[in-house]
Known about the structure:
Helix content is 19%, strand content 38%. It has 129 residues and is α+β, with helices and mostly antiparallel strands. The mean pLDDT is 95.
Amino acid sequence: MPSQPSKELETFDNPEPGRDYTIRIQVPEFTCLCPKTGQPDFAELLIEYIPDKLCVELKALKMYVWSFRDEGAFHEAVTNRILADLVEATAPRFMRLTADFNVRGGIYTVVVAEHRKPGWQAPAVVTLP
Length: 129
């Protein structure tokens, strides 16, 4: 049976919970509908996160992203909704979602939303010579 879109985000245990490390996931084919015109909107999503106890499972993420294909949503709303759902599923130390939408009416839109776990501090940046 072919895959179907789903709002369920599956997770798995972080294999290195004692270490801060970054996971970057690019989703180049995100689509939703303009809530005003019903025409398709296209975006590239970049998910960057530092997991705590859980990581998002990629096939489930693919099905989740697909579930927005026939939904009308403003860019700002859909970006924040996706971030909220990912945070609810994984409870990361840090997560940033960048949604880079294709041009619409001569205007490009990039929406960046972030989450920080209360009390979490980012590690100091290391600059190498």
